């Protein structure tokens, strides 16, 4: 585009809006470059120009000349000199100053790639010859929000950004000879992203893919909130008793299996045996206390040989389910119920169901290759699976599609908390040597409204708390989060409020549009009006990492995530497909039921 294409004059200036007057001929000649969201440059003296973005266009009648005139409302975003661009401005143009289309030279000055703006994100919709380069450190080192309605290209945008980070381009591994130090964990709710990072074996790209079959997340790593969320109904009348005795049992059992450790707490991530905790609670629920005169008032049980025994230490409750003596008021066999007798009937049923639920084996009974339990000494191996250190993987995908709903929040919470705790303690050790964290992590929360919602009660408390902690404190320890959602207005306010950079694709829901506008900086409110009319793959980029708010388009990732909708009408027009019997090795109804049963059992 030629420089200094004059289109009109300044009519009025204010802090937030500069109004431009245009003649009909100028508008008709340049209408391709006069659209909402495009850039103008306006004289402010000393060969400097103010850059403004168009936010409104209005036609009015010129009665004297019997022609239309055009009034443009524009929003100031910065000052460009001969060599540099500076965001923000305290200098406003005076009425009658000349207004020009922002030419290629100006755009290149604003969006120049340099040592700071070093990560290429996409191309300007205004001019495909100009690439938007953002500050990679500011973008990935701070929290990111990516939003867009279904079909807007959200998954492809996420996949493309992450492919660029790890060096995947058109199915090739650009870092084949030397793996980079990127560490990214993706919570994948719909099993979309595996295909985006699965390339030919000879490209030597290692993907760490963990679905419900491969995921090893032993229950003993959970903290107090996660354990109680899984096993205890907080709305039961005696939940306080359940919590107190459950905590006591776990603490005693941790001490039993980790005698060499000091200062063990309920939250210490060390092994305990959940089946023994079950025994303990079961025995408390059936406990009967000996009350015979001149004998110790202790729990009394009947052994298999018919003799009786007093339980001197209730740690014995871990070892077996005991048969207690019956209640009695006679002097010779006097005994009465223990303090928790009958209190935990429902609690015991719930414990038993969770422990034996085959869908929860990745939590309740994860096995090593040699078919043995994970113990305290295996903590390092468990942690490495999430951080990519078992197979030197830049990308770790946690496939949540097969995780039962009742443990979805706990799964997200536990993995997030482990990542945070690792980053925290690693950073502290580095700080002792006057160094900073050299293995920073990014956690990608795909479809975040499913597990970190604004509202939802106790079912989501664990995951919300863990992700919100990362949002508030993670950056100090090299841990950032990318929040991805099609319904941003339903995501926790705390998390989005901590995001410094936003990529917003098309948003059609008015509530979501207004929510995002309120989160964006003041100088982007008007440009955000374009959100409902963005084309698929186009997005508005704002935040600390970009020199100015920009509307860009991104290339498709290659390979792509499996996020494409079924072309229903095209499939309906095809010939009838048999799935009730074997037909050329195609999937049958029996295959579906077989997989279904496997998941449900």
Explain what this protein looks like in three dimensions:
The chain is an alpha+beta fold and 601 residues long. It folds into 3 domains: 6-110, Beta Barrel (Elongation Factor Tu (Ef-tu), domain 3); 132-217 and 366-563, Rossmann fold; 221-355, no CATH class. Helix content is 28%, strand content 22%. The chain is built from 16 helices and 25 strands. An 11-stranded mixed β-sheet has the order 9-8-25-24-23-10-22-21-13-20-14. Strands 1-2-5-4-3-7 form a 6-stranded antiparallel beta barrel. The longest helix is centred in the C-terminal third of the chain and has 25 residues, at 408-432. The radius of gyration is 32 Å and the shape is elongated.
């Amino acid at each position: 585009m030629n420089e200094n294409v004059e289109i009109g004059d300044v009519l009025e200036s204010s802090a937030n809006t500069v109004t431009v007057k245009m003649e009909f001929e100028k508008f008709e000649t340049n209408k391709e470059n006069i659209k909402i969201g495009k850039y103008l440059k306006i004289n402010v003296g000393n060969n400097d120009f103010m850059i403004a973005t168009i936010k409104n266009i209005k036609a009015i009648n010129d009665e004297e000349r019997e022609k239309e005139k055009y009034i443009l409302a524009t929003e100031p975003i910065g000052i460009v000199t001969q060599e540099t661009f500076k965001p923000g401005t305290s200098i406003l143009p005076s009425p009658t100053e000349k207004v020009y289309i922002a030419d290629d030279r100006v755009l290149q000055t604003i969006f120049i790639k340099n040592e700071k703006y070093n990560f290429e994100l996409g191309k300007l919709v205004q001019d495909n010859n100009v690439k938007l380069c953002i500050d990679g450190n500011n973008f990935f080192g701070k929290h990111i929000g990516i939003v867009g309605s279904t079909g807007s290209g959200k998954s492809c945008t996420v996949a493309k950004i992450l492919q660029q980070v790890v060096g995947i381009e058109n199915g090739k591994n650009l870092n084949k000879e030397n793996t980079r130090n990127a560490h990214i964990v993706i919570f994948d709710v719909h099993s979309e992203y595996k295909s985006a990072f699965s390339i030919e074996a000879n490209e030597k790209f290692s993907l760490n893919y963990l679905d419900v079959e491969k995921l090893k997340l032993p229950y003993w790593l959970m903290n107090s909130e996660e354990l109680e969320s899984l096993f205890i109904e907080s709305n039961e009348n005696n939940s306080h008793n359940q919590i107190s005795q459950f905590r006591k049992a776990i603490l005693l059992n941790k001490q039993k299996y980790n005698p060499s450790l000091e200062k063990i707490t309920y939250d210490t991530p060390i092994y305990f045996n959940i089946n023994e905790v079950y025994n303990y609670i079961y025995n408390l629920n059936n406990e009967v206390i000996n009350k015979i005169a001149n004998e110790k008032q202790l729990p009394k049980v009947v052994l298999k040989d018919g003799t009786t025994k007093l339980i001197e230490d209730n740690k014995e409750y871990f070892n077996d389910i005991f048969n207690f003596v019956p209640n009695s008021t006679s002097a010779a066999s006097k005994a009465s119920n223990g303090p928790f007798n009958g209190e935990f009937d429902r609690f015991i049923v719930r414990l038993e169901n969770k422990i034996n639920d085959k869908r929860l084996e990745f939590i309740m009974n994860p096995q090593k290759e040699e078919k043995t339990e994970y113990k305290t000494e295996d903590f390092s191996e468990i942690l490495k699976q999430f951080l990519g250190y078992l197979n030197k993987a830049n990308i770790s995908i946690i496939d949540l599609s097969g995780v039962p709903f009742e443990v979805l929040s706990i799964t997200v919470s536990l993995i997030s908390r482990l990542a945070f705790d690792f980053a925290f303690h690693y950073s502290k050790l580095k700080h002792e040597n006057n160094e900073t964290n050299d293995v920073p992590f990014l956690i990608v929360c795909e479809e975040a409204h499913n597990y970190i919602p604004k509202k939802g009660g106790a079912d989501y408390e664990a995951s919300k708390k863990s992700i919100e902690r990362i949002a508030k404190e993670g950056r100090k320890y090299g841990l950032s989060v990318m929040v991805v959602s099609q319904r941003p207005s339903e995501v926790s306010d705390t998390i989005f409020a901590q995001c410094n950079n936003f990529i917003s694709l098309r948003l059609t829901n008015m509530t979501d549009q207004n929510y995002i506008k309120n989160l964006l900086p003041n100088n982007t409110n008007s440009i955000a009006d374009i959100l409902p009319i963005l084309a698929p793959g186009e997005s508005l980029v704002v935040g600390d990492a970009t020199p100015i708010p920009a509307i860009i388009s991104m290339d498709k990732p290659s390979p792509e995530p499996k996020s494409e909708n079924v072309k229903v009408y095209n499939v309906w027009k095809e010939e009838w497909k048999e799935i009730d019997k074997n037909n050329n090795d195609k999937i049958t109804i029996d295959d579906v039921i077989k997989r279904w049963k496997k998941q449900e059992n």
